[in-house]
Every structure is written in structure tokens, then in C-alpha cells.
Amino acid sequence: xxxxxxxxxxxxxxxxxxxxxxxxxxxxxxxxxxxxxxxxxxxxxxxxxxxxxxxxxxxxxxxxxxxxxxxxxxxxxxxxxxxxxxxxxxxxxxxxxxxxxxxxxxxxxxxxxxxxxxxxxxxxxxxxxxxxxxxxxxxxxxxxxxxxxxxxxxxxxxxxxxxxxxxxxxxxxxxxxxxxxxxxxxxxxxxxxxxxxxxxxxxxxxxxxxxxxxxxxxxxxxxxxxxxxxxxxxxxxxxxxxxxxxxxxxxxxxxxxxxxxxxxxxxx
Length: 268
Fold this sequence. Notes:
Layout (H helix, E strand, L loop, with lengths): L1 H50 L3 H8 L10 H4 L4 H6 L4 H20 L4 H22 L17 H26 L4 H20 L2 H21 L1 H25 L8 H7 L1
């Protein structure tokens, strides 16, 4: 009886061990299946994200830049220090340049100060102050002012003169090509630009025109660079609308204008 009971205990223990092994195997298989399904879903997601382009790049590729521009605004302005000033890369220099131009315009246009008068008054004040300070330094027990020696360096002056000479020669060459009648498009552009300048010159003097150009160069490019996507999309819609209106005008007006026999023969 004792041996029979021991056999029963051993069989029950073996049965429990087999049941536990089956449970472990089922859990292991379910974990493997879950891992494979998650890895396949991750790979599918990676494929989808790789195949689908980003929204921002597709949006930027759809937007056509103003005047067919392909380069950034900073490169359009030359990419050097003038571009940094116009696009406010260094706010202190840009603000100082715009503030100086504003002060000059206020002095000469609003206050109606003359350049020679301003120069003479500035020299009078500077020389009188330095003269009095130099003579009074012995009485007030302070050191005399240090007046530096000012010399105009030769190299920057020569570089500026050479650059100016090259630009003038280039302008003369362009004017010669236009006068020779070789480029009709350039001729019309130059004539239109000169006519616009003549109209602006009749409305205001040279200093006011120069100040307007300075203000425009310090405001329009930086605003365009900041909102270029919105401005380009709006400009594209405006150009499309203009083309539609021109097509309507052509169909209703221009197409009804009688044409000469030479044009009819060419079309025929």
C-alpha cells in the first residue's frame, strides 16, 4: 500500500511538471508572436514614413518663389556685410545705420540745415572744446586731452577707388551695348528705370529719395525673409489671377481688334 501511494504521488508530480512545461511553452510562443508582429508593424511604419515625404518639404516645393528666385534672400544681396546689415543679422549695426540716416534726413530736410553749415558748426564746437580743455587742464589739475593723429590710409582708399572705377566702366559698357541696339529687353528696362527715377526726382529731392531707399532696404527684405512662404503663395495667387484677367481682356477686347493683312497671312 505504501508503494502504491508513492507511485500515485510520483505520477501526480510528473503530471504537474508536464502541465507547467506546456504553460511555459505557450507563454513563450505568444511572446514571440507578439514580438514578431510588433517588429513587422514597426517596419511597416518605418516604410510608410520613409516613403511619405515630409509635409514641410512638400509644401515648400509647391510654393513658387517670387520672380523665380532659387537662392536664399541673404545670397541674393551678395551674402556679405551689406546683406547682414539689410537683413538685421547684427542689430546694433543695422539700427545705427538706419538711425544715422534718419538723423541726417531730419537735419537737412526737416530742420533745413545745410551740409557746409553743419560741418563748420561741428568743427567750431569740437575745436573750442578741445582748446579750452587743453588750457584749463593746468588749473583744474587734470590731464590734457589725448588728441590722436589722424592719417588716411592709402590701401583702403586705393581699393575703394579701384572698385568704383570698375563699376563705372561696367556701367559704361552696358550703356554702350544698349546704345548699339543689341539688346532690346535691356534697353526697355533701362528706359523704364530712368523714367521711374525721373518721376521720383520730380516729387522729392535726392536726399529724400536716398533716405526712402535706405528705409526700404532695411524693412522690406527682412520682412520678406521672415514671411517668405506666405508672401510667395500670395504672389503666386495674384499672378494667376492677373493671367486670368488678361485672358478675359484678350478674349473680349484684343481679339476683336482688326488686324492687318500681313498678320493674317502669317497665321494662314
